[in-house]
Recover the amino acids of this structure.
């Protein structure tokens, strides 16, 4: 009896010990499980924080670059915009979610719409891997437009290899297009300047050589001429060609001094009518037969304060230019009565006139309307630069076959 009790007590102890051990193991397993769960939770929280940071960074990049991101379903051709940070200046009607691509295509300029639509169709059919287009979007109620650039690529395909998901971005590129246009314009201007300089060298060589050959040739035969009348005629020709050579050299020197900034404005007060009359009288000897020079002054006397030499140089060039292109008719030099403390002096001729497309360039250096007419192509450029230095402008109004009017507008009194 006592032995049975002892055995039962031992078994009970062993059972309790086993249960205790199981409880300890279960407790340890629970602790381990909780630890792992906590670690996994911390990892997920860290990943979530990183995802939030990445989203914030991504949104910041999209916002900084003025980008929009979108998805497109190739089967239905519907677009869903995920984010849109594009510049809204001159914006067209906004596109919502699940917008058919045709709606976007309708907002694109007609000259670009077909090209953009074909590129997107090729991408949706899997003919190309990437989509990259630039296109114009007209601004409503305006004749202006803005530029956009879109990229897209296939991100998922079905078992047959056909696209099932497309992701893309779109951004405004007006600034870049303006820079491209400015660079193209600068390149064209540089090329044109280079061409004009080459033409100038060729022209100036010819212009200098022509009077120089006459001077050298006539001078070499002068000792052999005994007839006084013939000698006088040769001397007149030598003098005429010497004056032509001096004018060419003066033009080159003037443009060089203007470029270097060495030519300073020197103010003086003088009577305008007398100055214009003197300039006209000195130029009459170069008039072609059948051409008359008239005057039309707005005042009997007019005192102006400006740079006498620069004003005289401008008017000499304008008058010389009119005489050069007028074969028959009249040249009129005059001015309007001063108003708003400014005076407009004009030289009007009945010559051949200037084409409208050339009127914008006649004041450029080395530009010549007619390459066969003598001249270095510097006169009107000098006029334009000198007028600017006097606080004025030189403009042209011309019609082919009817003549031209060059107008110099300067302050009545130029301040120092």
């Amino acid at each position: 009896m006592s032995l049975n009790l002892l055995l039962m007590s031992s078994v009970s102890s062993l059972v309790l010990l086993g249960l205790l051990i199981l409880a300890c193991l279960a407790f340890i397993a629970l602790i381990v499980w909780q630890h792992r769960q906590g670690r996994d939770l911390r990892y997920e929280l860290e990943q979530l924080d990183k995802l939030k940071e990445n989203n914030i960074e991504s949104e910041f990049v999209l916002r900084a670059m003025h980008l929009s991101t979108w998805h497109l379903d190739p089967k239905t051709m519907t677009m869903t915009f995920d984010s849109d940070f594009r510049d809204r200046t001159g914006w067209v009607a906004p596109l919502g979610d699940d917008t058919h691509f045709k709606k976007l295509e309708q907002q694109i300029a007609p000259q670009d719409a077909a090209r953009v639509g074909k590129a997107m169709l090729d991408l949706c059919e899997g003919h190309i891997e990437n989509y990259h287009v630039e296109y114009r979007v007209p601004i409503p109620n305006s004749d202006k437009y803005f530029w956009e650039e879109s990229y897209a690529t296939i991100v998922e395909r079905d078992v047959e290899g056909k696209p099932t998901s497309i992701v893309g971005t779109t951004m405004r590129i007006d600034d870049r297009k303006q820079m491209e246009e400015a660079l193209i314009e600068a390149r064209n201007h540089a090329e044109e300047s280079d061409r004009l300089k080459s033409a100038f060298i060729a022209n100036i060589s010819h212009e200098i050589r022509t009077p120089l050959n006459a001077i050298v040739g006539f001078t070499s035969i002068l000792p052999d001429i005994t007839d006084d009348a013939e000698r006088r005629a040769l001397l007149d020709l030598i003098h005429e060609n010497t004056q032509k050579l001096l004018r060419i050299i003066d033009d080159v020197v003037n443009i060089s001094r203007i470029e270097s900034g060495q030519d300073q404005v020197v103010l003086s007060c003088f009577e305008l009518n007398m100055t214009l009359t003197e300039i006209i009288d000195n130029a009459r000897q170069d008039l072609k037969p059948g051409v008359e020079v008239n005057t039309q002054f707005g005042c009997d006397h007019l005192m102006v304060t400006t740079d006498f030499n620069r004003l005289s140089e401008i008017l000499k060039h304008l008058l010389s230019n009119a005489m050069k292109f007028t074969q028959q008719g009249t040249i009129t030099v005059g001015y309007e009565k001063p108003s708003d403390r400014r005076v407009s002096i004009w030289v009007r001729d009945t010559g051949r006139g200037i084409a409208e497309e050339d009127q914008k360039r006649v004041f450029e250096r080395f530009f010549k309307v007619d390459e066969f007419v003598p001249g270095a192509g510097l006169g009107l450029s000098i006029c334009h630069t000198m007028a600017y230095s006097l606080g004025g402008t030189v403009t042209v109004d011309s019609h082919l076959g009817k003549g031209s009017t060059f107008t110099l507008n300067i302050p009545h009194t130029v301040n120092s």
Q: What stands out?
A: The two ends are 139 Å apart (CA to CA). The first strand starts at residue 67 and ends at 73. The CA atoms of residues 210 and 241 lie 8 Å apart. The domain at 64-172 is CATH 3.30.450.20 (Beta-Lactamase).
